[in-house]
Amino acid sequence: MLARLFPMPSHSLMLLIVWLMLNTTLSLGHILLGSVLAIVIPLICAPLRVPQPKIKRPFKAMLYVLVVLTDIVVANVQVALLVVGPQRKIKPGFVAIPLDLTDVLPITVLASTVTMTPGTVSGELSSDKKWLYVHVLDMPDNEQDVIDLVKNRYEARVKEIFGC
């Protein structure tokens, strides 16, 4: 009974807290209206929830964050040197990366990682979710190098984290 009334209790609590903070008063009317909204909104949204894969290896996830942060710092320096350096021979291009991932959340994590790393942007995910199109600021002569980097450095780790 209680689980049906509060399908997402943490969301209900957060909605109530945010509602009261936005109204800046603790009057009975605001508390009651906030409570009603905190119950009704999750009830309406509960059927829209999509089950997400769980992180199977949290330690690997922490290591992944460190790898990505390191790559972001290194890529920032590389892009800065490329843009303001004496030789501005930038060769932009797109590369299609075949994906082994199938779930939406791991694909989103991979695409976000690519986008957060300076010099690359995730452009599009194919409708069948088998290809990620990535724009590269300075495309190497062999586009397979970019594919191998994304697949071996990022996708393989994301697969481990989510147990795909």
Per DSSP E runs of 2 or more residues, the count of β-strands stands at 3
- N to C succession of SSEs: HHHHEHEEH
Strand neighbour order, sheet with most strands? 1-3-2
Radius of gyration: 22 Å
Oligomer: single chain
- What is the terminal separation in angstroms? 35 Å
Category by helix and strand content:
mainly alpha
Q: How big a fraction of the residues is strand?
A: 5-15%
Q: Quick one: overall form?
A: elongated
Number of helices: 6
Helix content: 55-70%
What's the pLDDT, averaged over the residues?
A: 90
Can you tell me the number of structural domains?
A: 2
Which blocks of ≥5 consecutive residues have pLDDT under 50? Answer: none
Strand count, sense and closure of the main sheet? 3 strands, antiparallel
Family: Belongs to the CPA3 antiporters (TC 2.A.63) subunit E family.
Membrane topology: Multi-pass membrane protein
Protein name: Na+/H+ antiporter subunit E
Subcellular location: Cell membrane
Features:
mainly alpha, 164 residues, 2 domains, 6 helices, 59% helix, elongated, three-stranded antiparallel beta sheet
Describe the protein.
Belongs to the CPA3 antiporters (TC 2.A.63) subunit E family. It is a multi-pass membrane protein. Keywords: Cell membrane, Membrane, Transmembrane, Transmembrane helix. It is found in: Cell membrane. The chain has 164 residues and is mainly α. It has 2 domains: 2-48, no CATH class; 58-162, no CATH class. 59% of the residues lie in helices and 11% in strands. The chain has helices at 2-5, 9-23, 28-45, 58-84, 104-116, 143-162; strands spanning 93-98, 120-125, 131-136. The chain has a 3-stranded antiparallel β-sheet.
